[in-house]
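re the bet — no i am not wrong, look at it urself. input seq straight from the record:
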Amino acid sequence: MIPTVREVLGLPLVKAGRPEVIGGRGGLDRTVRWVHISESSDPAGLLKGGELVLTTGLPLLGEPAKVAAYLRVLADHGAVGLVVELGTHVKAVPERLGEAADAAGLPVAVLARPIRFVEVTQQVHELIVADRYEEVEFARTAHEVFTSLNIARASMTDIVTRASQILGAPLVLEDLNRHVLAFCAAGEPAARLLDAWAERSRRTGSAPDSASAPDAGWSAVGVGLGPERWARLVLPERADDPARAMMVLERAAQSLQLHRMIQQERDALVGHAHGGLLDDLRAGRITDDAEALARAAALGLSAGAQYVPLVVRSPRHLQGDAIGKSASDRALLAAVRRSITATGHTAIVSLAREGTVAALFSCAKPDRALATCVENLRRQRMHPGTADSWVAGTAPAAPSLVRAAHGLTEADHVAEVGLGLGELRRLLRSTDVRLRGLLTLLKDDHRVQAFVERELGLLLEHDARAQVPLLPLLRTHLDGGGTKARTAAVTGLSRPTLYSRLRTLERILGVSLESPESRTSLHVALMALDTRKAEA
């Protein structure tokens, strides 16, 4: 360990000179980076900072003002102390030397007996070199440890645990929301370490990537590169050696980032292979079930009594820019994988396109497996724009993997329709979407668009100009089966007002709302209009 001024004065070799500190006691705990013997009255060009200057007193000859100026020069150029040997040039402590030392903030000690300065220099330098060697050895050991972890593809928990062992202190890896991803309690009860963790962590810094929290005595480093920072590695106590602690935290953070990059690359390769198989199955390039099962087994799908198609979709308009959409897609893909794995089943899972994840998984009881999978997915942490808006669609399970793969198209369609439903339902089948599903399939057909315009165009033009739009009233009236009493109860309109507005609707639309056929036609047009709005 690098010695302080106080520790140098306590060395037996120095104590033999009977040192007495006469001023500047507040700086005795400064570290000594070098020992310099000097008799120059102007040592500024010889100092780089951190030196303990040894002198026989020649620079202290002269008026007190000259001595004070000499001490100020030493302090201004980073010297940490001055040791004066009496007897050679000065017989006694110069006048007001202690006051000058206090004014300069520089520790000054006088030796009543002569000592060998060269031996002091050698001994202190050996201590400094030993400390430097210890630091280098510590850094080398840490480098080897984390390099080995990188080569072994260690998990996040393994990396955090090894860093904790090196420091002999607890460590916590937290995400940007202060949720704990991994930790090592280092002998401390985990309950105490993690108690109210998010609140305690937020009090140590204003941002998740804050580098340190000196007020709380914590040390922390961000994990991730620039704007892609995704976590923080925290040492939740005051470090005995802050420099060593930060070095270990930074090396551990690098290993954690490398682990994440490798995992993402592996996931990308696996996702590409899964996507290739699903594309071949959906496109009909694989028709033999034995071939399909062999390829799926090579990718980790276990054989099962039934194979279930599942498509999970999220609305794209909630995901922001391209970076946000990409992050959302990765999070959705990972969430679907975890949700199926948590059911105990295996699957082929791939990102079919933006905002859409397709999966085929094997099971014995499809209904129970689907319900469990969707519940698992609901509990997953996802991208903020996806968490509350995703919809899963499915199709009938099949004992054949090829037949089940053909059901992905139906499941995709059902999920797409589900995004346009007014009431969010997490899992939908074709029996749940019915006519709305057909209209969703035909939403881009110009004949359907022309039908909507013929049925509702004049009303839409009226509402664009009117202060009181009538389309909501029409929707409510049709949803209630054309019953005026029910419409009045839902809207809260008085009977005369309701009748007046219904007559206005009939006049604008040019049809009678008493006619069941007219109401059906208008209802279908509204549903078709809704599918276009959902897409937008």
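see?? The first helix runs from residue 5 to 9. told u. also The radius of gyration is 39 Å. so pay up
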